[in-house]
Amino acid sequence: MTKTASIVGGSISGLIIANLLFRSGWKVNVFEQSSRQLSDRGAGIVCHPKMIKTFSKLGINMPELGTWVEKRVYVSRDNETNRYFDYPQLVVSWNNIYSALLDKFPREHYHLGKTLNDVTTQSNHIRAVLNDTENIESDLIIGADGIRSRVRNYITHANQPEYAGYIVWRAVSNLEDVSDIRKKQFTFYMDSNQQILGYPIQRNNMQSERYNLVWYKAIDQDELDRFLVDKYGKKHDFSVPPNRTNSNLIAEMLESASTELPHFFSNLISKSKAPFVSPVYDILTDRFSTGRVVLVGDAAAVARPHVGMGVTKALLDCVALHNKLEKISNIEEALSDYSIQQHRFADQIVNASRHLGSFIQKDQHSLNNELKSEEISYIVENTADYEFAIDKISDYYPRNSS
Question: CATH for 45-93+162-282+359-395, among 3.30.9.60, 3.40.50.1240, 3.40.1190.20, 3.40.430.10?
Answer without folding.
Answer: 3.30.9.60
